[in-house]
Prior knowledge:
By secondary structure, chain A is an alpha+beta fold. Chain A has ten helices and 22 strands. Chains A and B meet through strand 1, strand 2, strand 3 and helix 4 of A and strand 1, strand 2, strand 3 and helix 4 of B.
Amino acid sequence: MSGSLLFPSRRLRATPFTSRVSALGVAGYTVYNHMLLATVFESLQEDYKHLKEYVQIWDVSVERQVQLLGPDAHKLACMISARDLTNAKVGRCYYAPICDQNGAIINDPIALRLAENKYWFSISDSDLLLWVQGIAIGLGLNVDICEPDVSPLAIQGPFADDLMADVFGEEIREVKFFHFKAFSFRGHMLNIARSGWSKQGGFEIYLDDTNLGEELWDAIWAKGKKYNIRAGCPNLIERVEAGLLSYGNDMNREDTPLEIGLEKYVSLDSEVDFIGKAALQKQRKVGIKKRLMGIEIDGSKMPPLTMPKKVSIEGKNVGMITSAVFSPDYGGNIGFAMIKASNAYVGAEVMVDSEEGPQRGILCEIGDLWAQVQSNR
Amino acid sequence: MSGSLLFPSRRLRATPFTSRVSALGVAGYTVYNHMLLATVFESLQEDYKHLKEYVQIWDVSVERQVQLLGPDAHKLACMISARDLTNAKVGRCYYAPICDQNGAIINDPIALRLAENKYWFSISDSDLLLWVQGIAIGLGLNVDICEPDVSPLAIQGPFADDLMADVFGEEIREVKFFHFKAFSFRGHMLNIARSGWSKQGGFEIYLDDTNLGEELWDAIWAKGKKYNIRAGCPNLIERVEAGLLSYGNDMNREDTPLEIGLEKYVSLDSEVDFIGKAALQKQRKVGIKKRLMGIEIDGSKMPPLTMPKKVSIEGKNVGMITSAVFSPDYGGNIGFAMIKASNAYVGAEVMVDSEEGPQRGILCEIGDLWAQVQSNR
C-alpha cells in the first residue's frame, strides 16, 4: 500500500487551509474523520528535525469538534466521559477517554468547557457525534449536538511562543498548558489553547469561521518567516518518541483504557456514573489480559506499519506492534506493543516479525521512551 | 490533491483481501469506514469498459456490518430506519436511509434481516455503530450491537451469474434481486445477495471469516479466468451513469431524503415511529429548499471532483455539483447537482464553474441519465 495514490473525492473533505497545505508541497495525506490530513511534507525525518528546532504550522482541522450546548450539556458530558468532568472548569482542556458500555474506547478526545452549558469534544478518528446524539435521543436530553464550523490550526515547535506572541500579543505566553482563552484576530475572537500533538510545545487555534482560514494561515506564515516556519503535520517519529498514542493505531474498540495505560484519566473511584464505569471497575478487579508497552526493536530502519507485526517469546505469540518507526535521535527503532499481561514487564526480550526476518525487541514503559531518546541523542 | 500519496497506517485497516488487491495492481485507494477501498486499477475508463463487458471481483469489505442481535433487534431496526421495516422478511435486503431527529441523513445502508431477531446494516461511510449503540444505551434496549467479522466481496458484470454458478452451483442463478441466501464454500456457509454497487448485475458475498478471505478470492479468480475476470472496484463513471448516489459526495448530514429524491424509501405514511419522521413530515408539508438533480455538462473531459463546483443561472448561485465525470458511452460529462428547489426543473440551463472556465449544463432527472447514456452509446 505504500506508494498508493489517494483518489480524489468530495467525500474526503477539504479544510479551510487545504489550498495552503497543497501549495506548500504536502507529499502524503491520510484520511481522518472523513477529512484530509497531511502526514509528510519533505520527508518524515526532515519534518521531524525541523519540528524539533524551529516552528511549524499544522492544519489539524480533522480534529473535528462535537459541540454540546444547552441545559443538559454538562450532564451529558459527565455521562460520556470516563474522566470525571463534574468540576470541569471553563477555559480548561481535559483529555477524556470515551468508552462504550463494555469499557471499550470509542474515542479519546480533548474536552474543552467553553461555558457552563457548552462543551467541545475535540475528537480522534471516529464519529463521536453519532454516539453522543444517539444517547441524547435515547435519554430525551435537552441538549443541542452538532459539528460546528471549527477547524483547529496548530503552531508547534520551540519558537511557537515567540511566533504566537508576534501574531496575538505577549499575553498569549501566559496561557498555561491545557488552558485556553479567546484572542482577537482582526477583530474576530478565536479560542486558543496551549496544546498540540507533539512534545515540542505550542498552541492550537480553534478557527470558527472557514472564510477566515487562508487569512489566518497567511498572517501566521508572514510573521513566522523569521523563525524559519514550515508547513508540518503530526509527525510519526516525534509522536512515538513522545509516547503520544493514536486512536485506530494504538487503541481502538478492542481495548479499554486500563489496557492502554490511561488509568489516570479514568475516574473509577469518583461519584459520577459514566458509561462503561461498571465494566472498567470489574476489569480493574479481575485484572487486565493485555497491556500496551513501549518497545525498542533491533535491525535496520523500520518503515511505518500498515499491519500490526507479531510479537513472540520463544515462538509463542504474546502480542503485536501497534506503531513503530526509526528514531534518528534514539538511533534505532521504537514503538508501542500490545502485550499479553503475563509477559508485559519492563526489560522483557521479545521477537518481532519484520520484512527482514525476526528482530529482537526489549519492552519498556511508554513514558520512558522519551527519556531514552534524550539520553541517546 | 490528485496525485497525492496515501501514507501507510494501521488505522487505515487492511481487509481479508488486501494482499490480492495489492498484487493485482491497484493504482488508487480511498479510505471508507476507516478501511482501504480500491478506486482504480488500470484507469477509470479501462476499468469501466471491462466492467460493462466481462466480470470483476471487488473487495468491498468497507461495507462494514452493524449487527443487531437479541430480543429488541427488530424494534431498534424499525426505530432507526426511515424505511418501514415492520414487515421486513428474512432473506431480503432493504435500502434503508437512517436519519437523525432533524431528518438529516446519517447513513444510507442496506438492511439485511437474517432472522427474527438479527439484522445486519451494511453501511456507507459513517460510524453507524456508534449511533445505534448510543440509542440502545439511552433507551435501555435488550440488544447486542457489534461490528462482526464480515467483509463483503462483490462479483459484478455481465458474466457474474455464470461465474457464480461455476463456484457456488446453478441454484445461485435463482436468487432474486435484493434477496440473499446461504451457500456453501468448502463446507462454510456464506450469505450471498444479488446486489452490488453497479448496474451491471451481480452478487455480494458476505464473508464472515477473515481467515477464509484469500482462499475465497483465489477460488473465484481461478474459475473466472475463462470469463476474463479482473480485479475491480466501484467505478465512478459507471455509478454516475447508473444514478447510484454516494454518501459523503451526493448526500450527507446537510441533506434529507426528500431533498435527495429518496421519497420512496421513506415511510412517512406508515404506522412506525422512526427517528426523524416528524421532521420529514414537516418538510414534506412546507416543501424542500433544494433538490438533487442529474446534469449534463459541456466542455472537455472533467476530472473527478475534490470540491463541489458552483452552479449558477445568470450569475446567481443556485447550487453545486456533487459528483461529475466524463462518460465515454454518453460522450460527455455527466453528474449530480444539488439545486435550489425553485430552479430544479428538467431542461433548465445552468452554468458550471470548471478549471477551464464556466461551462453550460442542462439539468435532468437522475433516473434519466442511464437512458441517455444508452441512447448515445
